[in-house]
Amino acid sequence: MAKTLVIVESPAKAKSLGKFLGKKYDVKASMGHIRDLPKSQFGVDVKNGFKPKYITIRGKGDIIKELKAATKKADHVLLASDPDREGEAIAWHLANVLDLDEKSPCRIEFNEITKQAVQNAVKHPRPIDLKKVDAQQARRILDRLVGYNLSPLLWRKIKKGLSAGRVQSVAIRLICDREEEIQSFVPEEYWTLTAKLLKGNAVAFDAKLHKINGGKADIADENQVRRILDDLQGATYQVTGVARKEKRRQPAPPFTTSSLQQEAYRKLNFTARKTMMVAQQLYEGLDLGKEGPVGLVTYIRTDSTRISETAEKEAREFIAGRYGAEYVPAQARRTAPKGRAQDAHEAIRPTSVFREPDSIKNFLTRDQYKLYKLIWLRFVASQMSHAVIDTTSVDIKAGKYTFRATGSMIKFAGFMQVYIEGRDDEEEGGQENRLPQLQEGEILKILSLVPRQHFTQPPPRYTDATLIKTLEEKGIGRPSTYAPTVDTILKRGYVIRENKNFYPTELGQVVVDLLKQYFPEIIDVEFTADLEKKLDDIEEGDVEWVKILENFYAPFKETLNVAEKEIEHIQVEDEVTEEICEQCGRNMVVKMGRYGKFLACPGFPECRNTKPLLEPTGVTCPSCTGELVLRRSKKGRKFYGCSNYPECEFVVWDQPTNRKCPNCGSMMVLKESKGEKIYRCSNKECEEKITASAEDVQERIDNITEDSRLNAY
User: Fold this and answer.
1) pLDDT of 294-308, one tens digit each?
2) Dmax over Cα atoms in the chain, in whole Å?
3) What's the CATH code of the domain at 378?
4) Fewest CB atoms within 10 A around its CB: which of 59, 211, 480, 677?
């Protein structure tokens, strides 16, 4: 019987395809790349048209032998690596190693691992797209030219083990530049004034001071607040304007790689690396019992929000049946690609919207279920009707002062019935804020006036989500590069992640400063984005890949020679502590690791002793007389434990405080959620909570003289 050999990248994908294709097909896995540039050599012949030297990756010899043997037995060979540039390059390498004609119809691709998609793909093979291969090859060689020239320079001038690269260096620069902004930021004081008002026996509502004498209400300091409070003594609060509007809110489009990484971080607290790892499992296929191995989501490396007509029809049918016809928009939703999006693949969506998350929950791990549910909900919501929200804005005059109250009520939930996109800067939208029915001319009762001091805030530090969002917006890298970029800058110790925020280390700042001085193009955002554009041009056939490398390398090499001569050795001094190494007697030093600081013996490599760095909190352990200290788990997660461990095993995950719970007397911990600080009782049986911001407000109010504060109570 004639057999067709299909080669995919992973065993999981091979298992899924084997189920769909039947006995006439033999499905094997290459386990990813089989050839690459050598790690121990430069591997690029610059003088001979940047000719790359590819070698078999260590450990892939037996796999190649198996594939060659299977190729000889097969009548046809189809290369089914992932449908992107890297996948095209893998197919090209396979064709070269297996002596296949790259111009013959030997390449197939599919956006989802479903029976229909796979069976359709094997019926329409095509030649390998050499333009895509050239674009990927140019990227690989470009990264080698930068990395294998800059990294040794950093080893010689700073210390061994460092690395530099096109995308990672720009990412570090963004974090360092943001830290400089934060450190140089000078906060400015301002105040707000909120009136708590009442109409009859209705629920009280808040209105903020909006205008003074018709102009913007800018309150600079406490003295101005005092004058305003004095002016408002005995004032009448009258409704002078009521504006009601109906707003439409549109759903977010289906996920791209970038938006999936951002939203998984916001809603699931997944790092970019974890998101891509779990998403790959969902894409390649999971065993669903009687249904067998099934790919649950479409291809996960994409910058497109487009979906197929089949998926559109299926979604509309599901929404009508589950939620009703009014939740189905008159026309299917379609989102145009943004900026430099290649739009080569569909958005990330479930392969079947009828495969609901809870129906397959028992077959998935906890993380797989969470991510699949997120993708499923986002896709369903993206195809639903818009939400309709009634908004009300009320102006209330009190002498020369105008207060404004705003309210909203959901008239028709639409897509919000299913899913609301997360935000980086504030809580998710969708909450209602109802006002009583108010009419112009009505007189309201004043209950209290609450002044509050604020200070302008510096720009926030980057998180996984905001860094990836910025890289995408600036055209740095591609969907497949975001997760490994974040992973690399953490591993190298250039940045650390604290409370979800990225902080540059001293080492990271030193490297960025050096690159800024001698290699401004490499670390320049616009220059790096322009290189990405040129890689796209190679794929489109608009420019030769060798020409791009020639234009880049000549000035780069010249700068490299200058830097080698001019840069002197830079010493990054370790912080010496009073902690003595019990193995050799030296004073231990503070080192920076992937999960933050730790103690190490300076006698390395002769002495390899390390210890966790215990940071005191000044809080007494509730279980003994020891002090609570900051520790880290094996995965880098912060927690607080007793300094008398192992004699005392008290631990708490949130920041401990010396505050006692007013309800049960236990220690209270400080927790931050959506930018708001909350004191919470550490006793799990006690539910006492105190909002820190509310307490600060009360303290500030108490500092304002009693006679200048209005309080109806």
Assistant:
1) 899 999 988 889 898
2) 98
3) 1.10.290.10
4) 59
